[in-house]
Amino acid sequence: QRHLLGIEHLAPAEITAILDLADDYAALNRRADKHGDALRGLTQINMFFENSTRTQASFELAGKRLGADVMNMSMQTSSVKKGETLIDTAMTLNAMHPDLLVVRHPSSGAVDLLAQKVNCAVLNAGDGRHEHPTQALLDALTIRRAKGRLHRLNVAICGDIAHSRVARSNILLLNRMESRIRLIGPPTLMPAGVADLGCEVYGDMAEGLKDVDVVMMLRLQKERMDGGFIPSEREYYHRYGLDAEKLALAKPDAIVMHPGPMNRGVEIDGTLADDINRSVIQDQVEMGVAVRMAAMDLLARNLRDRRAA
Ligand code: CP
């Protein structure tokens, strides 16, 4: 692949190759010396047009640990604030010969558009409601390490599915890797065409969580609700928030996941989120660095091959 724009473009063998390499990088990241040289001599620019903690920090660490020159563009102080367009900004940076461009943007499809205009490899760090491919890959790696496999697992994705690029990328990946997916949430927070996604759909947590292996919780993404229906947080927590009582319906060894940022007491009980016997939320963050190292390493190999040809 030339870019990493979405899980929709990845075959199962490509997903497995990224996860296998990320497993190696996860081991490297636990060593005292965490450095590799896969990106030495390359320039990585991170452009985040939307807020981020985990994704931006882990892409920066991933690039630095592999020897890239990493620049974080501060979009708040850039000429975007003077009216410069996304494409003009990208073309300006392209003229500085970056090798890897990591982009987060609030508009679905913006990263694909940008990738058509530049010469370097582009990685989608989340675009609108469309995709967040490295999040799905780090989630898959976390599940594979906890459960030993991805196929024939029952995975519940719960909450605001409609506005979630994390849910969309996870549905694509988990379907491709032959997991069985249940979507659980209020009908108002299910996406259009949910019946065609290849998932079982539940409106009730008690029914949907029965005997699942993995429970993935999602934040209410109010910033993408466009003035539509926003449920009351208290009522939402009562019906759809994950607590110990609801989790007891899943398998006894079911793991609890959340991509972050999380709203404690809205979609998940804070004590449960911190319970290291059930919650793998911190493992997800750890795997985020490893997956981004693997993704950039593989794109850099492709870039070098194309330049050598
Ligand atoms: N999961 C995720 O994308 O987190 P950030 O918004 O903090 O990057």
TrEMBL record:
The keyword Ion transport does not apply. InterPro entries: Asp/Orn_carbamoyltranf_P-bd, Asp/Orn_carbamoylTrfase, Asp/Orn_carbamoylTrfase_sf, Asp_carbamoyltransf, Asp_carbamoyltransf_Asp/Orn-bd. Keywords: Pyrimidine biosynthesis, Transferase. It is an enzyme of class 2 (transferase). The keyword Transferase applies. Pathway: Pyrimidine metabolism; UMP biosynthesis via de novo pathway; (S)-dihydroorotate from bicarbonate: step 2/3. Belongs to the aspartate/ornithine carbamoyltransferase superfamily. ATCase family. Reversibly catalyzes the transfer of the carbamoyl group from carbamoyl phosphate (CP) to the N(epsilon) atom of ornithine (ORN) to produce L-citrulline. HAMAP family: Asp_carb_tr. This is Aspartate carbamoyltransferase. It comes from Seohaeicola zhoushanensis. The lineage of its organism: Bacteria, Pseudomonadati, Pseudomonadota, Alphaproteobacteria, Rhodobacterales.
